[in-house]
Amino acid sequence: MRRLTVCADDYGLGPAVDRGILALAAQGRITALSCLVNPPRWSAAGAALQDCTAAAGLHFNLTEGEPLSPALRQHWPRFPSLGRVMAQAFLGRLPDALADELQAQLQRFVAVAGRAPDFIDGHQHVHALPGVRPLVLDAARRLRLPLRNTGHVRGPGFALKRHVIEACGGRALAAEMRARGLPAAPALVGVYDFDPRADYRALMRGWLRDMPDGALLFCHPAQGEPDAGDAIAGARLNEMAYLASPAFAADLTEFGVSLA
Prior knowledge:
The chain is α/β, with parallel strands linked by helices. It contains ten helices and seven strands. It has helices at 15-27, 42-47, 70-73, 82-90, 98-113, 133-143, 159-180, 200-210, 233-243, 246-254, and strands at 2-11, 32-35, 55-60, 120-122, 188-189, 215-219, 257-259. Strands 1, 2, 3, 4, 5, 6 and 7 form a seven-stranded parallel β-sheet that branches. It is globular and about 50 Å long. 45% of the residues are buried.
């Protein structure tokens, strides 16, 4: 049997996302969830994790909503787009206050959830970007927390998107994690274009067929009425329908994969 961690991203984003993630956790179909803590609804969403047995981590966010730290709000009253964050990262122009923001988000997680996060990753993979990566690596070492490895993104398909994730800091992050002795999953799977017409089961069967033992799959489920303004709402509903279905359990068995 090969082991797979299934992590649902964006917990705390909205009611539909939170409903879906909690339902899958209760069903035993995901083993981890990654939390956005800067939205106002985090107070209620974090409290709802008290009875959840899945691992819960910090989904470090620099592109959605507003910063928590006063220092970063002086630079960014609202978070910029991913494209702008990436451009500033590669130009070496990210605000020094990112360190304050990471600390504020970690503190906010603990204040509501009542415990430290089980891991750290990044919303839209920002944790691997230049200027962000050293901060997250230092926090992971200090708190003894795993990080999401975006340095080896497996297919099949969507090679350009996978290459961009690896090239935009993922490979550098993986190398620095190895140098520091930090634990890392050998591969990341789950990349596609979020087209609501996609056959998510066919995608999943490809990931299950080709994944190495210990891989991490990230997903984005939601349940019920979509959250307002959610750009990938259709894809979330498709993912939810499959992950909650007998087909997912059957596919895991067929490919000799157990959830870890």
